[in-house]
Amino acid sequence: YICEMDARVMWDNKTGHSRGYGFVLFCSQQALDRFNTAVVSPIYYVMFTLLCLFLIRKSSIWHLLQSGDDPYVA
């Protein structure tokens, strides 16, 4: 159970669409810590892992390994 006091989404006045962010006010530090542990940490872990995989795939090392050449031999 996580108690939240208030949640606000930021809206664009011209388009009427969400700006993509908002604010949440929690009732205590413990509630915020519980939310971070349960929701935010796993999301950041997945995003970081996907970013690392993407960067490795785009790097020159990946292309060398796929070509069969030894990257340590000059």
TrEMBL record:
Keyword Mitochondrion: no
One Pfam family recorded for the sequence: Mg_trans_NIPA
Keyword Membrane: yes
Location(s), subcellular: Membrane
Main subcellular location: membrane
Domain of life: Eukaryota
GO cellular component entries: early endosome; membrane
Protein name: RRM domain-containing protein
Biological source species: Aegilops tauschii subsp. strangulata
Taxon lineage: Eukaryota, Viridiplantae, Streptophyta, Embryophyta, Tracheophyta
